[in-house]
Every structure is written in structure tokens, then in C-alpha cells.
């Protein structure tokens, strides 16, 4: 074997390749999912990017590969949450297996169970950000209101269906009633977190359905 043979030539060190930021949909998705979890617990202002990165286990360079800023990250998280919640509403409110008002009641029951599962640490991401609206970057207020309007529309459609089936009075203003539902429900969610218990949620649900115009 010659003097440049394999036996005497130092082999190239094997190991992990250098970290290079690559477009990885799984990493971006993990960051957004973690953002949803964190922002439903503590809001936007007090959420630090370093904490999110630590939970996901990716370097800061990866974060800025996908998001130009914390603000851009916040908008991506908000979009993910809005899509998720719209699907959740549709699963309940469009179910043909139950009468319309019972669909809405089941939604409130599901939400109560969800908050209890996380020991009332997590609330509504939209409601959390709404509490911080004066501290958020410009543009968040309009997006939050648009999301709430979308949720109201879905509830109003469900109430109108109940109206056509005779479960609500013919002169019921379903749009106003849907707005009232979300104003009250978001307040009940915040109060439940404050009390670490289900009483505000149960009380609002009980009174809302008991006072519907029949």
C-alpha cells in the first residue's frame, strides 16, 4: 500500500452536519403550536421568544428563518388559533344530530371541560390578546375584532336555524343575541381563570339559555 493509502490517511471526522437554517414545515408548525399553548396561558406581551424556543428545542436562528419578528409570529399564532376555533365551532354548531340550541349548549359544555382539563390556566387566546390590546402592535385590534365577528356570525346562523324551527321567538334579533353571547362568554372565561373554577362558565351558560326569547 502506498504512502497515501487508507491506513495512514486521517479520516474525516464524522458527526452531526453543521446547523443550517432550512425550510422545515415541521419546525415552523411546532413553533406555532407552542405559541398557541403559551399565548393561551400568558398572553402576547409577557411571552418571550426565548421561552418558546426552549420548549420547542430549536435555536434562535431557526425562529427568525420563519418569522421576521415577534409580531409576525403573533399573527401566525393568531391565524392558527382562529382556524382551529372556527373548525371547533363548526363541529358543534353544524351538527345535524342535535337541535340548534342544544348544539350551542354542548359547545359551552365542551369549553368548560377543556378549561378544567388544563386547571383553568388556559383561556381564549383571542380574549387574552383583547385584554392587552392597548399594548399590542398596530393591526392586532382589527384582526381580533374580525375573528370575534366571524364567531358571532356562526352563532347567529345557529340561532336563526333555531328560530326557523320554532325554538326561538320569531322577532328575536339573532345577530344581537350572538354578540351578547360572545361578550358574556369571553367575560366568563376570564373570570373562570381568575377563580380557577367553573362557576362563571356554568352561571353564564345557565342564564343565557334560561333567558332566551321563546
TrEMBL record:
| Keyword Ligase on entry | no
Tagged with keyword Transcription regulation: yes
Q: Where is the HTH tetR-type domain?
A: 25-85
Instruction: Return the protein name.
Output: TetR family transcriptional regulator
Q: Which Gene3D superfamilies match?
A: Tetracycline Repressor, domain 2 (1.10.357.10)
Q: Which Pfam families match?
A: TetR_C_13, TetR_N
Q: Which PANTHER family match?
A: HTH-TYPE TRANSCRIPTIONAL REPRESSOR NEMR (PTHR47506:SF6), TRANSCRIPTIONAL REGULATORY PROTEIN (PTHR47506)
Cited InterPro entries: Homeodomain-like_sf, HTH_TetR, Tet_transcr_reg_TetR-rel_C_sf, TetR_C
Q: Where is the signal peptide?
A: none
**DNA-binding region(s) in UniProt:** 48-67
Keywords annotated in UniProt = DNA-binding, Transcription, Transcription regulation
In this chain, the stretch annotated as Disordered covers 1-26
Amino acid at each position: 500500500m502506498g504512502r497515501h493509502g487508507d491506513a495512514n490517511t486521517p479520516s474525516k471526522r464524522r458527526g452531526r452536519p453543521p446547523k443550517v437554517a432550512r425550510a422545515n414545515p415541521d419546525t415552523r408548525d411546532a413553533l406555532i403550536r407552542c405559541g398557541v399553548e403559551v399565548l393561551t396561558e400568558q398572553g402576547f406581551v409577557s411571552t418571550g421568544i426565548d421561552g418558546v424556543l426552549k420548549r420547542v428545542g430549536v435555536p434562535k436562528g431557526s425562529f427568525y428563518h420563519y418569522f421576521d419578528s415577534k409580531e409576525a409570529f403573533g399573527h401566525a399564532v393568531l391565524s392558527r388559533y382562529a382556524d382551529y376555533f372556527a373548525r371547533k365551532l363548526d363541529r358543534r354548531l353544524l351538527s345535524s344530530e342535535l337541535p340548534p340550541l342544544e348544539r350551542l349548549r354542548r359547545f359551552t359544555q365542551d369549553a368548560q371541560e377543556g378549561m378544567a382539563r388544563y386547571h383553568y390556566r388556559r383561556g381564549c387566546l383571542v380574549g387574552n390578546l383583547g385584554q392587552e390590546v392597548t399594548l399590542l402592535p398596530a393591526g392586532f385590534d382589527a384582526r381580533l375584532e374580525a375573528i370575534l365577528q366571524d364567531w358571532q356570525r356562526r352563532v347567529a346562523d345557529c340561532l336563526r336555524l333555531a328560530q326557523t324551527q320554532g325554538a326561538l321567538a320569531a322577532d328575536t334579533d339573532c345577530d344581537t343575541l350572538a354578540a351578547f353571547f360572545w361578550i358574556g362568554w369571553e367575560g366568563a372565561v376570564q373570570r373562570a381563570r381568575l377563580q380557577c373554577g367553573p362557576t362563571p362558565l356554568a352561571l353564564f351558560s345557565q342564564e343565557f339559555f334560561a333567558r332566551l326569547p321563546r
